[in-house]
Amino acid sequence: MNKRKISRRTLLGGAATAAVMLFKSSYGRMIQTAIPESLYTDDPTKVVGPPPGAVGARSPFEHPVKKASDTSSRTPLQDLYGTITPADLHYERHHAGVPVIDPHKYELLIHGMVDKPMVFTLADLKRFPSVSRTCFLECSGNFRSNKETLTPQEICGLTSQSEWTGVMLTTLFREVGVQPRASWFLAEGGDAAVMTRSVPVRKAWDDAMIVYAQNGEAIRPEQGYPARLLLPGWEGNTNVKWLRRLELSDQPFMTREETSRYTYPVKDRIRQFSFEMDARSIITFPAFPQQVEKGWIEIRGIAWSGWGKIAQVEVSTNAGKTWQPARLQEPVLDKAHTAFRYLWQWNGETTEILSRATDETGYTQPTIQQLLNARGADMGGYHLNPVTAWVIQRDGKVLFRPEKWK
Amino acid sequence: MNKRKISRRTLLGGAATAAVMLFKSSYGRMIQTAIPESLYTDDPTKVVGPPPGAVGARSPFEHPVKKASDTSSRTPLQDLYGTITPADLHYERHHAGVPVIDPHKYELLIHGMVDKPMVFTLADLKRFPSVSRTCFLECSGNFRSNKETLTPQEICGLTSQSEWTGVMLTTLFREVGVQPRASWFLAEGGDAAVMTRSVPVRKAWDDAMIVYAQNGEAIRPEQGYPARLLLPGWEGNTNVKWLRRLELSDQPFMTREETSRYTYPVKDRIRQFSFEMDARSIITFPAFPQQVEKGWIEIRGIAWSGWGKIAQVEVSTNAGKTWQPARLQEPVLDKAHTAFRYLWQWNGETTEILSRATDETGYTQPTIQQLLNARGADMGGYHLNPVTAWVIQRDGKVLFRPEKWK
């Protein structure tokens, strides 16, 4: 619902070109020229357009972008539709930038408590039986709540969804002969952070994959080209990108990313190895900075759970007093962003709209107060999935309702 | 499985840049600079990579491209994985190029045999209850067979798949009050061809949509930005792009695209209004120009049917003597590309591999001979879906087996 108005003047002048040139991408730049004046017309039926190209491009009237910092970038959830995230808008969270990896030199070593340590090239990985699955990824630090003027992208844009293709990790584990005593494995990335995480072997026997493709094409550099670990439903950082080594062991490796980071207080204890991302939902329309009119409004959003399928999404249009079930877009997939929609007639009075997700385990997305009750006042910044509320003002303006807890 | 080798020299020199600059896209150009020398290293763990960007980009080692003529471009099926076609690789078939349409000026008129003729803006369309569905599109002229050195892209790359989002056409038809006598509607595009097709109203009551989003984002210009008709399973040209007018009537309109084109001989008669695309499949690996080695090979491909779900794909590895069922990737969706896989141990002898699809109506993809028997020797160029065979030579080279019929 990108309603940014672009005049002919803007399109034909330098502004649009300049704006597009600002969209810097990894390794280089993408430059899209403005529309040639000869093509811009009040009657497109009178002007023959350009022929097909070798690759397509967005309309010059559309430019969804990620909000990027030095270490992360956020998917523009409020600009998207359905359940697939375009690969170039997938969120990023890196610990030492995006490495350049030559796929012809890529190698994955699997060793440790295995009968036969092996090195796999990318071509080797592609020769094994392949599987595709659609699931979300989410950074465990995916929550902001400091002001009214936050967009869905700013609140929780560290989640995206792709159709991934690759080889089941079990296939490789059988190949190397993982020993019965092995209960953990280390996953190590080939970036300059040499990102490492310990993963229980049970996840491999469940649904872990090594993936080399995303949304139909080779995985993008920002997502781990040429191959990454995929642990469906588990916190993003465990899905190690640019994967170069798996080491089997009978205990976790206690790496920096599971001792000094990615742990959080739960009352008077510290929770470590908190893998599954709990059920969550967010309304992406209407949301800040959109403005709505009185009458029928389709409330739209996405819901997801790292524990399985979304069973129900409820919507409240009266600040949480009552809740009604939203429509879920079929097919509802396991550990996947699920689009929900709820048709609502707004009477023009100030109100708050909220959504809450319940997954197939029966777990329901908590309020911030329920989170506080469960985890204590000092919750840290990880695994926060509270119900999100939007305030709709009488003038139709939509604002985020910040949650204050510290 | 793009195995094109790129040396460091190529990447750093002018060649890579020049190659990428050749990838002309609609309206403008995409330019991707070569990898800065500082990032290219034999040990990526020693070099901090660039930070996240506002939009991502493909790896410089990957460049799938469409094969484009003046009027069409073909999806590189042999370079893809899974079931989603990246939006910028979606096939194109235009009758007067790609028009530039300002979404703020876009209007869709629905008139004719309706109680209340109405004009809908893009914002109007987006206010209605929305639906997402994943399905394929396919040009009715999607077949080539003239030589051994054809890739899947060249044989049948005029098919692609997206997740589409928009409004059900029934929603709009109820809004305007389509009269009971109306049995056809005209769909008219806003391009310089003013592309028109007549569509039976029954398709609207079944599953037709007006879509404004594709694979999570606004629909691409080449696919009808800002809105197109989507008739799941029906021949591509009826899914009118840049849709600007629907006119209800009690008879078809006999437009140029259904009289002089998009009709074909069936024995001594001409078939008109042949909407559904019949079940089809193609093996995309191994395929020309790939080369394989003796041993285990996962045969991979896609199958689809405009009549419903794919029920079965069978693979033959002995030139059609015997057939075995392939694995289908779940979930199998209605009128959707369905990935199939079949694990095969190649003994190194020359052979032919084939696939054939059966849909839920019980229809099985025919051989070229069966097509000839059903339609006569002068079959024309539309709705050809024969079983495709690849010859695997002793040296592992894979060639297409052309079908001669005229």
TrEMBL record, chains A, B:
It holds the Pfam family Mo-co_dimer. GO terms for biological process: sulfur compound metabolic process. Keywords: Metal-binding, Molybdenum, Oxidoreductase. GO terms for molecular function: heme binding; molybdenum ion binding; molybdopterin cofactor binding; sulfite dehydrogenase activity; sulfite oxidase activity. PROSITE patterns: TAT. PANTHER family: SULFITE OXIDASE, MITOCHONDRIAL, SULFITE REDUCTASE. This is Sulfite dehydrogenase. The lineage of its organism: Bacteria, Pseudomonadati, Bacteroidota, Chitinophagia, Chitinophagales.
